[in-house]
Write a structure and sequence with these properties.
This protein has 136 residues and is α+β, with helices and mostly antiparallel strands. The protein contains 6 helices and 4 strands. It has a 4-stranded mixed β-sheet, with helices on both faces. The relative contact order is 0.18.
Length: 136
């Protein structure tokens, strides 16, 4: 099995994957989608909707080299044409792996997501943890 398809399975189990058009639209509207993935055999209408969702939610959109059937086997949800990864680091890893096999097609998306993941990581590291002490 392809390593990236396994990564999608892990994302699903971790609750970091929106599956299907309605779930992807909701994730994009809520600003949670980092990467919107369309299957390579998805319909033109679903492709347009995925692009609009990505634009609306500030996410990156790609057409993956996987069919709806392959994605359905991993997600166990029929044959979805659209997915969204909601974790920036996982999305960057997914597209970076794709860029290794098809640099021309995926390198721009990989660079964008790597930068987004870096920003989210910096924000996370700056968040104070624990209780704040009062100065009374």
């Amino acid at each position: 099995m392809d390593r990236n398809l396994q990564l999608l399975g892990i994302a699903k189990k971790a609750g970091l994957l929106a599956v299907g058009g309605d779930d992807v639209s909701a994730a994009a509207r809520n600003g949670k989608a980092r990467l919107i993935i369309s299957a390579n055999d998805t319909s033109d209408g679903a492709l347009r909707r995925a692009r609009m969702n990505a634009q609306t939610g500030g996410a990156v959109h790609i057409v993956a080299p996987y069919s709806k059937f392959e994605i359905g086997n991993i997600t166990q949800r029929g044959s979805p044409g659209t997915l969204a990864i909601t974790d920036a680091g996982l999305a960057a890893k997914f597209v970076s792996d794709l860029a290794r096999t098809d640099h021309e097609k995926y390198s721009d998306a990989a660079e964008q997501l790597t930068e987004i993941a870096r920003i989210f990581s910096e924000r996370k590291n700056k968040t104070p943890s624990g209780k704040r002490r009062s100065t009374q």
